[in-house]
Sequence to fold (204 residues):
Amino acid sequence: MIRIVRERPEHAAAIERLLDEGFGRNRKGRPSYRFRRRVAPLSELCLVALDGAALVGVIRFWPVRIGARTPAVLLGPIAVAGSHRGRGIGSRLVRRGLAACRAAGHRISVAIGTRAYLGRFGFAPARAQGLILKARVDDERFLVRALNPGALDGAAGEVRALAPASPPRAGGARSRRGRSGARGAVARPPESPAPPQRSPRDRG
Fold:
């Protein structure tokens, strides 16, 4: 019996093996990986399929932005073990993942993948909706889906990766000393996140 559950840290090694099997060891050169560098996936949306103790499927979502201020989620990768393909596991992962996105308040999902597959779940060419992707990806593979009616109204512009926040400096407070000794600690404000980067199958 196949169970769909939230991804957990102990699944990480099995997920990497599954993605290598599905997309090859050079998969990180794909355009979609530009949106994932140094950015954590949205853990509450990432799901795995388990057959007993064996991990046989995975889907992940990542935070992105459309234009200046429209948030969205990037679907992918989605992968199913070769031994378990043709059993509807990928479809279950996509449907459960998109439902989780809606429940969490996300309104738009973008993807780089096969339209013949993702179109079954409501994805359509994104450039026709006014979205821009600065990468060599065919129009039929750059896709978008509104997760709520009207979510794409007014959404236009480049899909960008979210830049990771700068790590806090060691010792969030420092001491200042005057003529008579220590004056106490003065807290530093946290550093602001870097501005969004202009970055240009996935189901992977």
